[in-house]
Amino acid sequence: MTPETPAYGPTPSTAADCAPVPAAAWVYLLRCPDGSLYGGWTNDLARRLKAHQSGKGGAKYTKSHGRAAVRLAYAEKCADKSAALKREAAIKKLPKAEKEALAAKWAADNAITLRMATPDDAAAVCALYNWYVRHGVQTFQYAPSTVEDYRVNIEQVLQNAPFLLAESADGRLQGFACAHPWRTREAFAWDVETTVYCAPGCVGQGVGGRLYRALLALLKQQGYHQAYALVTGCNTRSKVFHKALGFKKIAVERHTGYKFGQWLDLEYWLLPLRAPDATAPAPVRKTLTAEEIARVL
Ligand SMILES: CC(C)(COP(=O)(O)OP(=O)(O)OC[C@H]1O[C@@H](n2cnc3c(N)ncnc32)[C@H](O)[C@@H]1OP(=O)(O)O)[C@@H](O)C(=O)NCCC(=O)NCCS
What we know:
It is a single chain. The protein is of the alpha+beta class. It has two domains: 85 residues, GIY-YIG endonuclease (3-Layer(aba) Sandwich); 184 residues, Aminopeptidase. It has nine helices and ten strands. The strands form two sheets. It has a seven-stranded mixed β-sheet, sandwiched between helices. Strands 2-1-3 form a three-stranded antiparallel β-sheet. A hairpin with a 2-residue loop joins strand 9 and strand 10. Helix 5 packs across helix 6. The radius of gyration is 22 Å and the shape is globular. Coenzyme A binds next to helix 1, strand 7, helix 7, strand 8 and helix 8.
């Protein structure tokens, strides 16, 4: 009998294991507060939008037309930079009414609604999450989850907390947010770990914020006291996002994870949902009524 090599853990994931992120090029229109439209192209929609809004690396036009208040009004994915440049030039030549028609259709197609997930949403949620498993270090997971994993995950989450989905008008999953028990001992029963992921094509467009604000409001109503988020040290987007939503960084585990050929820090971010008072806390309500949920969503 051949002696088996003892398995001590996963084979370290190297940079080559990282699935290459498909190149992206976008043409976009921004709506300025005076109603005018500004057009441009970018390979990172979320970063470009924030550049316009912050004034750092944006454009002269948006700087002098309401900068922080400009909003995405239209986005179109193109095959590559050269296609995006051509399309940008074509859109810029359109009469105002046709630009407005593009913006109106985009707004209708991308109107987001939030709803509670069911186990039947497992395939869509799993596909979205696995994109980050395969391409990024936002999650420390190496191997993609299965649809069955997610079916069980959704069922388990819903026993204690919301599992929210953001969907476009035509039913495309744009993001999800949920919460898991923070630790298993009884005294931690008022604490949760929150999670949020947007579809790669729609980060920076307000979807994560809508999902997370709704999630946090529902958790607060259930009687949870503390929301923790675990954020990879190099995930700047998530750190800025958590800070904008009121979380504070409370601890860092240095070089605690290894994925795609690099050591990763893990940061702990905390948002107190309720102030601790002297009396014993009421038990967390495991479920909310349909009316309570509808009021928040
Ligand atoms: C992190 C993530 C969920 C944020 O969602 P999002 O839809 O991109 O964020 P939003 O556009 O809703 O931004 C919400 C707030 O964060 C702030 N923000 C987000 N990105 C920012 C940036 N790059 N610069 C400055 N502020 C930013 C804004 O102030 C915004 O506030 P507002 O609602 O008042 O405008 C999303 O980018 C994502 O899915 N990333 C990949 C997966 C991931 O990292 N998940 C988190 C794991 S811990």
